[in-house]
Amino acid sequence: MVTPHENPAFIGDDGVSRSQEMHNHSNSEPPPKDAKPAKEREQWGKGIEFLMSCIAMSVGLGNVWRFPFTALDNGGGAFLIPYLVVLFLIGKPIYYLEMIIGQFSSRGSVKVFDLCPAMRGIGIGQVVSISMVTTYYVAIMGMTMRYLFDSFRSPLPWSQCDDSWNAVCVASIEKNTADFLYNSADNISNSQILNSSVLMSLNNATTSAALKSTKPTSSAELYFINEVLREKDNINDGIGLPNWELVIGLFISWLCVFLIIIKGVKSSGKASYFLAIFPYIIMAVLLIRALTLPGSVDGIIYFIKPDWSKILDPKVWYAAVTQCFYSLSVCFGNIIMYSSYNKFGHNVHRDATIVTGLDTCTSLLAGFTIFGILGHLAHEIGTDDIGSVVKGGAGLAFISYPDAIAKFQSLPQIFSVLFFLMLFVLGIGSNIAMTSCTVTAIRDNFPKVKQWQCALGIAIFSFCIGLAYVTPGGQFILTLVDYFGASMIALVLGIAELYVLGWVYGVDRLCRDAEFMMGRKVGPYWRWCWAVVTPLIMTAILVYFLSTYTPLTYNKVTYPNWAYAIGWTITCFGVLQLPIWVVVGAIRAPGSSWSEKLRNAFKPKHDWGPRDPLLREQYNKEIANEAIANENLGCWGFIKKNILG
């Protein structure tokens, strides 16, 4: 008869953990008097707070504006097939993997690489990357705040044209404007122009000649470019001075983040209920409203209608991987950080399944909502081509949606407030995780720094950097930092993380850690994904990314050479943490020769394992016994055991 493995950290109904029972009933000697007890680490007040925080982190702006446009651009409903495949082969395995190592070690995203000190550069590089993302993410929140305040005005300021824009403008409040916005000027007669009340241009003298030289643009788009961004055509002569209205929004956004994380997970955990649930309430209201609008069903059908010709296109699969990668926030350190505050033995398998599934459902729900309203927009302006009214990326939130809202007959302000409030709450939820990741990385290595001091320092520093994004050239800088500071660094370091955890630390040991922690065996699906499938797919994506690389542009405008130099410097600063810390790890590692030091740098530190001393002692005994059993495996035996167990 085989004795089942019992989770030593299981918390019983009496509130007593197995580790406490072991201590109370053990005949073993007490620890030495001079042994320093581990400093008590903060923990979530309740397990549900961890789940809610993960939902608030993973369900963000990418679900609302990036997923619908990405799906539409890559086959519509057919995109769901590669996306779901990628979710099960990349998103879900990495999410569960990072939850396990964070909870098992109770370490943040940098200190968790005590499991392989030579690879600590992965964690540091990820903190560098997520810190850069934080700076521009809050700048987007500043724009959202500007629109939120403007939503209380009547009429909505983007619904009408303004002479100062010096453009051929089509008022968003007007209907049946498709002929002017989407038709060629050759097909529009002068009489049609002169009899129209929807066009406004410089000197109020619009002619077909003017239409040929200047394409008519909706007032919603002109408002975003001229009033909100005050955007420049290029940044060859600099980026300009900050827009004070966006600076106020930036300050308010950072103030909200600071106040929520001022006490760590104790305060952010309480806020997570609102941050996770409230956006769904608003989204449900907006979806119900969208379904009652004429033309909405056509928009939803347009969104989900499959284009099967794209199913085998490598670009579609690449888009699915990047969408899943960034939507779930894997390989950025956030998940490791959040799970490090869990109680040992918490069921992260359940939470990983819930969050990854809910993230996909939210993306679909957002797609139905957005395209339902865009279908109504197409109906109102008099066009059957719904794709013509859709703007990608931020344009979907700040141009297409406001354009549609302006045409609502009754109380458009209410639905505008709801939409931008939802965006703001979603953004704050994600940004709390990103900022907390940096705070945790600092405090894990400098424990004397208080939570509020660290949070305040990061908020002030990031606010100062964020001023660059609210200048007339800010969107150029934002796109540059997103590409070189987030996408490229995260992809390279994410692949390194997978190979280190899968083959240096080992999938087999990782599975034993999970079983020791939760008392449940890890199935072959997880083993194959962690060891083979996920790393290989991510490597293929990197190869595809590099082979199809083209110089970055913004709105088809190339950057000056100094901007590209800054971009590659940012990438190198993040990626070069890898070799730098291999050298540092080897220098710090014990050993009498450099070869011995290098080998030891790739082995876990002596104090690696559960934070509880009793649990770590039991864990070390199991690892020692396992090491003896694996002494004569050989190379093929190691590979087989690592994958199959």
From TrEMBL:
Membrane topology per record: Multi-pass membrane protein
Gene: 101887417
Gene Ontology terms for molecular function: amino acid:sodium symporter activity; L-amino acid transmembrane transporter activity; metal ion binding
Keyword match Transport: yes
Record protein name field: Transporter
GO cellular component, one term: plasma membrane
Organism: Musca domestica
Cell compartment(s), UniProt: Membrane
Parts of the chain that traverse the membrane: 47-65, 77-97, 127-149, 246-265, 277-304, 316-340, 352-374, 417-442, 454-471, 483-505, 525-546, 566-587
Regions of compositional bias (Basic and acidic residues) in chain numbering: 20-39
Keywords: Amino-acid transport, Disulfide bond, Glycoprotein, Ion transport, Membrane, Metal-binding, Sodium, Sodium transport, Symport, Transmembrane, Transmembrane helix, Transport
Annotated Na(+) binding sites: V59, N63, S327, L426, S430
Disulfide-linked positions: C161-C169
Family: Belongs to the sodium:neurotransmitter symporter (SNF) (TC 2.A.22) family.
Signal peptide (from-to): none
Gene Ontology biological process terms in this record: amino acid import across plasma membrane
Region of interest: Disordered: 1-39
Job of this protein: Unusual broad substrate spectrum amino acid:sodium cotransporter that promotes absorption of the D isomers of essential amino acids. Neutral amino acids are the preferred substrates, especially methionine and phenylalanine.
